[in-house]
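[Meeting: bench + compute handoff]

Bench side (C.D.) handed over the final construct sequence. Compute side (W.E.) agreed to return the predicted structure before the next meeting so the bench team could plan truncations. Sequence as handed over:
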Amino acid sequence: MVDHIPATEERGDAWSDDLDEFDDEDDTVAAAGGSAVTGPGEVVIAPATEDRDDRLDKLVARHLPDRSRTFVRQLIEDGHVLVDGLVRRPSFSVTPGQRITVSIPPPAPELIARPEPIPLTVVYEDDHVLVIDKPAGMVVHPAPGHPTGTLVNAVLHHDPSITVGNRLRPGIVHRLDKDTSGLIVVAKTDRARNGLVAQWQARTVDKGYVALVFGTVPDDEATVDAPIGRHPTQRQRMAVVRTGRPAVTHFRVTERFERYTMLDLSIETGRTHQIRVHMAFIGHPVVGDTVYGADRQGIRVGKRHLLHAARLGFDLPTGERKTFHSALPPAVTAILNRLRDDER
């Protein structure tokens, strides 16, 4: 029998509830229906009576006439728009009396993805797709702070003809966190990319992971069904929030240690940091996770967390179903063997 852990059950420390309080130290207040510039790149908007029930993205776009609606939506989704101090969705209905703070980040320097001779572990390749076993520590695509040395740089060196999709993310249809190892698929053609995107949207992709988590997980099997969104105050983190997007993670215990548990996991959705957030939410953060399990001291695992994308299944453009598997990296296997030896 599979236990179901609902979104309304508050467990662990990853839950971030909606709070009514907000930081009101800034005395600059916009008049109702207007907006005020409170500092470099910051605007405060005060909804008027006629703005009641307007979508947040529409209201902000009206007050930023020189910015596109797409730009505004991205600002909101990245946590740069706060309503009474909280991150909201673009579709959020505004109410007169609320304080909407818009922070416009400075433009990032232009990034260019260039081929780099970085070794790749290719699991499978045909004319349409490339399946790679990504090592922990490798960022998937160039971004501020990681302009080079990414999986995309390595892929472009492996096959310079891959140009589908975004110029900084050619062929990328899904991502793995930097410190997560395991399987990732890259589309080499538009046909493959369109097919893979459709499968991700239809949730027909089989995504399997293994993780070592803190503590003894009591349930042999369980499902965590809890929405995930931006943390209301710590914008670089995700959290379980009632206003988040639906997120479902299934797990099964494969091995228990005195202080740790090994899990097989599968995810129906693919939210940012989903497994890491859900495991912290139920009180069992992933070992080595310095973001969602920073307060836990345990076995030394090096510069990674113990989460590995071990299985990936999808339909090729030919219609053939393929499932790929990745063994645990030797360093992770050595850690598990050390735990087993300690308990003998």
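W.E. noted at the follow-up: The two ends are 31 Å apart (CA to CA). C.D. will use this when planning the next construct.
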